[in-house]
């Protein structure tokens, strides 16, 4: 299978979660797949010092920052064509809930970038698997509405997911929620207490579920 992997920078507080991103790429490779990384060619919501957790007076581009994870092999999101891929995956991170959609600061009233929503709708309409890790399932629920996802077990996030018309499945660490009718596959990652080995297992279990359909 050939996967499109959608990133939005490099760093959990202001971009894509690095562990989730790298483990997703590793899982795809180890399960015999191929991938192409994409990111919006646009500014991050903000830049955060990952030592102090405080915002910095700096601007960074999501595409250029994602290139750090991709080792340069990244393309603008506008070049992602559903016909070129068998599946799409969205790693999470608090930064994804700032850059790809606005959940981090608008909660249930969030909006999703139109180019990101278009990719989600295109893969859904084509009947191709959509995977999401950590907080990213909230974005899938916001766009698609009547789907089943997991964000682990956080009550507030569960309520927000359900307010979009979606169903929530409580999962334990390493678990995967498989909405086979909609081909939506989600896993909690850092929405639950986790070691990096748990993130590796989440990503691997997610990719395996997507391959099996």
Topology:
Elements: E1 2-6, H1 18-30, E2 34-39, E3 47-48, E4 55-56, H2 62-70, E5 74-76, E6 87-90, H3 96-99, H4 103-106, H5 114-125, E7 130-133, H6 136-144, E8 148-149, H7 155-163, E9 167-168, E10 177-179, E11 184-187, H8 196-212
Parallel strand pairs: 1-2, 1-6, 2-5, 6-7, 7-11, 8-9
Antiparallel strand pairs: 3-4, 10-11
What is the rounded distance between the termini?
Answer: 11 Å
Largest sheet: 7 strands, mixed
**Gyration radius, in Å:** 15 Å
User: Largest sheet, order of strands side by side?
Assistant: 5-2-1-6-7-11-10
Instruction: Give the % helix.
Output: 25-40%
Which spans have pLDDT < 50 for at least 5 consecutive residues? none
Shape: globular
The residue-averaged pLDDT reads: 97
Order of helices and strands: EHEEEHEEHHHEHEHEEEH
Helix tally?
Answer: 8
Alpha-beta classification = alpha/beta
The fraction of residues in strands falls at 15-25%
The count of β-strands is 11
Describe the structure.
By secondary structure, the chain is of the alpha/beta class. It is built from eight helices and eleven strands. A hairpin with a 6-residue loop joins strand 3 (47-48) and strand 4. Helix 1 (18-30) packs across helix 8. The relative contact order is 0.18.
């Amino acid at each position: 299978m050939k996967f499109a992997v959608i990133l939005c920078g490099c760093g959990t507080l202001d971009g894509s979660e690095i562990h989730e991103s790298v483990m997703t790429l590793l899982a795809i490779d180890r399960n015999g797949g191929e991938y192409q990384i994409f990111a919006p060619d646009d500014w991050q919501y903000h830049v955060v010092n990952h030592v102090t957790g405080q915002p910095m007076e700096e601007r960074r581009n999501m595409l250029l920052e994602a290139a750090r994870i991709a080792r340069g092999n990244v393309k603008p999101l506008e070049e992602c064509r559903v016909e070129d891929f068998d599946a799409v995956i969205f790693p999470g991170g608090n930064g994804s809930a700032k850059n790809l959609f606005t959940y981090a600061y608008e909660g249930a009233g969030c909006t999703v970038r139109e180019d990101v929503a278009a990719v989600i709708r295109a893969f859904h309409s084509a009947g191709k698997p959509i995977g999401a890790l950590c907080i990213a399932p909230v974005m899938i629920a916001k766009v698609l509405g009547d789907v089943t996802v997991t964000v682990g077990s956080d009550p507030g996030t569960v309520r927000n997911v359900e307010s979009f018309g979606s169903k929530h499945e409580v999962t334990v660490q390493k678990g995967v929620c498989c909405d086979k009718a909609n081909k939506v596959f989600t896993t909690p990652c850092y929405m639950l207490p986790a070691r990096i080995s748990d993130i590796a297992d989440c990503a691997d279990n997610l990719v395996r579920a997507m391959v099996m359909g």
